[in-house]
């Protein structure tokens, strides 16, 4: 995205943080490098923004800059997928201390570009400014290609609830990093490398958003704040009661072993752990897309919305909350 | 944009920093409140991002939060206007310390909403996260309504150069605030209140972007980094030499008096002062839109691009550069 490292010391706006290596392509009339980008949209355009803050959402000693950049793109693109759309482009704002190494910004940038290209999308422009800490904000735009957007509040009684991929890996990986930092066995890092990588860079198949829409999903959202929080949002917005069975939640093989090693209730990761960015959908019975896992159902109308997990109301479990849970150093309270 | 102050402590993503008071309207299929917004775009969509950082781009003791919010919108919308488009929506990312008063965020938000509505646009969604300092990032999207986008590199030999409104007010207002902070006469604040207000909230007529495009502008950009920087960009991208006469630059009445009072060369403000967000255009001779002021012309082809001010090469004068000029407390070095 950055044209030349030499431009960094005087980086000023979209023209400088410009991806001259990312030329106009399909959907793109004018790429980055001018006052604004121009994208060709023959129909509805989907747009969302996500911001990651050093010390809150990532730490430079736990993740490489290119992973931080790629992760920010995945977060933004997951919101696009959650409407049933495909991501066509991103615009990026990077705020960083003037003492940041140029190599760090270039690596961050490389991660942004690579993750964007992996989605079949383009970097449309950006902004690079000085600040006291590193803040990466990604605005993603996408197309619906003739499909009606899938809102979070469209679930109907009788729908089946399903998720697009394994949950809890990101929270487990973070728990492993924290355990080692607190003096735990460093061998945990090797044993659970798969989980640590899931924390560093979640790898959801975001094409499943379009797949879910094509299968006729009634409601769709991405799991950014923990499954339990997304279920609450879906239930409240749809005015329904949802019931799920935690044993049915898909997870990677090493998750249970890691929970035992770290003495954690597995459900803290699968139900309350956020940032996996897999998709949660409500589907008419029998229309689940291939590869998705049914975890429960929409059972009743309920104007206030409610969530039942394993037969009891999900009261105490909370997912990610930006201001509530996390200390400035990134640890949960 | 924020639905309720009570949601702030657990603010988490677009669903929470959601403008439930800003319903779908013209161009908007789904407003904020879901994973992403959906806008109806019958043709090319223009998109750009701008970020403002506390202590770098604004100070809370110099500007009210609603001014900071409104200013961030104007900055984003100016980039859209600079392509010849009208702004249809914005998505906003606010990062702020957990100790920030809820009233401050609500006031900031009110400024964002008011400025967005003033443009005839909608707030499409947002993200509210915790950080060490206040960072406001606005992504603006807009429509071209059948007009071809106007790039900065399209100026042609023989074009006239014109600007859409007065320059230097923002830089002068900032200079007044700094002078008073350094022990200068507080009466300066009253005497030059118009300039201080220009710094706090620039008021360019951004509809002039569309007007310029309709008049057949060859090149267009907004003056965010100072006229001299924008001229350099335009000249280099267009591979031309541009010549301007500093006496022709439009300015508000009190600017010259303030320059005398503060012992400043007026051109430091009109030529090098940034953030007025008026537009600079290159037009075929005789096609200047009403209300614009001719300041010079495109005189020669020049593959490396060059800028002549008052008959001499503009070498030393520099405009705004995010990393180079400004100390962390917001002062220039």
Automatic annotation (TrEMBL), chains A, B:
Binding site for Mg(2+) 1: 50, 127
Chain spans, region Disordered: 1-26
Residues noted as binding Mg(2+) 2 in the record, renumbered to the chain: 50, 79
Top enzyme class: transferase
Residue intervals of the PurM-like N-terminal domain: 33-143
Binding site for Mg(2+) 4: 35, 48, 79
GO biological process, one term: thiamine diphosphate biosynthetic process
Segments of skewed composition (Basic and acidic residues): 10-25
Functional pathway: Cofactor biosynthesis; thiamine diphosphate biosynthesis; thiamine diphosphate from thiamine phosphate: step 1/1
EC number(s) given by UniProt: 2.7.4.16
Binding residue positions for Mg(2+) 5: 225
Positions that bind ATP: 126-127, 224
Residues reported to bind substrate: 57, 275, 320
Membrane spanning residue stretches: none
Keyword entries, A-Z: ATP-binding, Kinase, Magnesium, Metal-binding, Nucleotide-binding, Thiamine biosynthesis, Transferase
GO molecular function, one term: thiamine-phosphate kinase activity
Swiss-Prot/TrEMBL catalytic activity: thiamine phosphate + ATP = thiamine diphosphate + ADP
Keyword Nucleotide-binding included in the entry's annotation: yes
Residues the record lists as binding Mg(2+) 3: 35, 79, 222
Other comments on record: Reaction mechanism of ThiL seems to utilize a direct, inline transfer of the gamma-phosphate of ATP to TMP rather than a phosphorylated enzyme intermediate.
Function text: Catalyzes the ATP-dependent phosphorylation of thiamine-monophosphate (TMP) to form thiamine-pyrophosphate (TPP), the active form of vitamin B1.
Family: Belongs to the thiamine-monophosphate kinase family.
Protein name, entry field: Thiamine-monophosphate kinase
Taxonomic classification: Bacteria, Bacillati, Actinomycetota, Actinomycetes, Mycobacteriales
